[in-house]
């Protein structure tokens, strides 16, 4: 990557982080200490889209795969928020929700990535 492409990747990461905040805020509006469904949705959607980008790899220039995948979708998805939300749930006595949050994030995000890769592969055929 050249300097301009790295700058584009960083800018895309900022856009992704802003989009993550917006989606989470919309989903969680008025829900307070509820299950962190906004972050779960962000991670599933981001995994699906990253899988799609990977599946489209044959028709997508590698630099764009990096800018969109690592930059935009890397900024959009968040493992740290899942970790923190799970710890906070456990501290509030909602250990079952903490386990569900971790398991659902892992299983559904991986499944979404697989689906995205399959769809992307079908598109490039």
Molecular structure report:
The structure is a single chain. By secondary structure, this protein is an all-alpha fold. Helix content is 82%, strand content 0%. It has one domain. The chain is built from five helices and no strands. α1 runs antiparallel to α2 (37-55) and α2 packs parallel to α5. It is globular, with a radius of gyration of 16 Å. It starts with a helix and ends with a helix. The model has no long low-confidence stretch (mean pLDDT 96).
Whole-number tally of structural domains: 1
Specify the biggest β-sheet.
none
* Low-pLDDT regions: none
Structural class: mainly alpha
Radius of gyration: 16 Å
Shape: globular
Overall strand count: 0
Task: Give the ordered list of helices and strands.
Answer: HHHHH
Overall pLDDT metric: 96
Helix proportion: over 70%
How many alpha or pi helices? Answer: 5
Strand percent estimate: under 5%
First-last Cα distance: 28 Å
List the keywords:
single chain, 125 residues, mainly alpha, 82% helix, globular
Provide a short characterization of the protein structure.
This protein is mostly helical. It contains 5 helices and no strands.
Record the SSE blueprint:
Elements: H1 3-28, H2 37-55, H3 62-76, H4 79-91, H5 95-123
Helix pairs in contact: 1-2, 1-3, 2-3, 2-5, 4-5
